[in-house]
Amino acid sequence: MKVDIQSVSPSRSVLAITSEPDDVAKIRAAIVKEYAAQASIPGFRKGKAPAAAVERAYGKRIAEAVEDRAVRTAYEKAVDDNGLKVFELLSVENRQVGADGSVSFSATVDLVPSFELPATDAIPVDDKKTEVGDADVDREVESLRRAFAANKELAAGDALEDGDMARVDYAATAGDKPLAEAVADAGSFAERKGAWCTVGSEHFLVPGLQKELLGKTVGANGLFEVEFPADFYKESLRGVKAVYAWTVAGASRSIPAELGEEIFKKLGVKDEAELRDRIRQGLTANAETADRARHMQQVADYLSKAVSFELPARAVEERTEHLLEHLLEANMNRGVSKEDLSKEREKLTAVARARAESDMRTDFVLDAVGEKLGIQLTNEQFAAYMNNFAANRRMNREQVKELTSDRAAMRNHFLHARREKVLSELLKTAKPTAGIDAQ
Q: First and final CA of the chain: distance in angstroms?
C-alpha cells in the first residue's frame, strides 16, 4: 500500500492512498466467497456455484463491494500505520480502479490537535465559599408562602403595589402621528389592550411604564413619555420619542399564605423550625454544588487559555451553527422579531463562534489531560451520570429508551461525563487563590 500525506493546515491533511493489486485481489476473493455462500444460481445448489459463475451473475455488485471494502480497509490501515489521530473523515474522493487491479483514492481528514499540556497541579481557583445566612432562609420561606398564595382581584380605586399584576391598555404617538404611522413596524409597541404587566418590575414591552404605574389606581389613566434607548433591540425604535396614553383596565394581587399546619403537612414537616432547617440544608447543598461547578469551570478556563492550537474547521462551523440556532430560538422566545434577528445575525454568529471555539478547545485539552493522567470512566460511573441526566430532565421511560438507542448521542454523553471526571480529579489538587473573580 502506498500512502502520501499532504498537510493542508495544522488541523487538516489529505491522504493519497493506493491499495496494491495483491491486497485488492485478496479482498475480491473474500467477497466472492461470501456471495458464493448465499448465491442461488440456476444449475447449481445454493452455496455450491463455482467462483466464475458467481462473478458472472453478480459481477457489478461484487466490483462495487470490492472497491468499497478496499477503500475502507486501506484508509484504516493508512491511519494506523502512520499514527494519525483523526478527529473526522471529511471526504473520500478521486476513487479509481487501475488496469492492474489496484484501487486508489484521496481522503481528507481533520486531525485531533497536537499541543503541549501545561502543568495540571495546583491550578488556581478562587478562595471564596458561598455561605448560607438567615436572610437566605427567609427569602426561601417567603418564596414558599408565595407558592401557596391566593390571588385577589383588585377593585376600582385600589392603589397598585410592587409585584401586582396590572392589565394595561395603551396607545402611543410620536410627534403629531400615531406611533404605528411614524414607525411602520412598531407593532405591539404602538398600541395594545389588556397587556399584562408586573408593576415595579425591571421588564415590560414599553420601557419604564411598569414603574410609572406604582401607586396608580385601578381605573386610572395618564400619559407617559418614553425615549427608546440607542441600543434598543428593535432598531427602528432606537432614539424614537413617544408619548403613551395608558389606562389600568384591571389588576390582581398575590397574597402570600400564612405558615401553618396545613402547609407544614403538605411540605412534610412538623413545624416552622423543621421547615427552616430543611431549607438551610438544601441551600447549603446547592451552594456547595455551585461553588464546585464554578471551580471546575475555572480549571477548564485555565487549561484552555494555557494552550494555543488550530481547531478542526468543519467541526467549528457545525458547532457554531448549532449554538446559533439556540441563540435565535432564545431571542424569539423573549419576543425579538425575525426581522430584528436577521439584522443582528452577524453579531449573534460571532457570539456563537466564540463559544464554539472555547468549548471545543476545552474539550480537546480535557481529553488530553485525561489520557495523560490515565483517568478512566467506569460503566458504573457512566450509568450514574446518565441516571442523573434523565432525572434532572424528568425523562420518561420512552424518552430514556430513545436516548440510549442513539449511539452518537450516547458517545457524546460518555465524553462529557469523562471530561467532568477529569475536572473532578484536577479539582482535588487545585489551589484556592485570593484575587480570582468568582463568576
A: 55
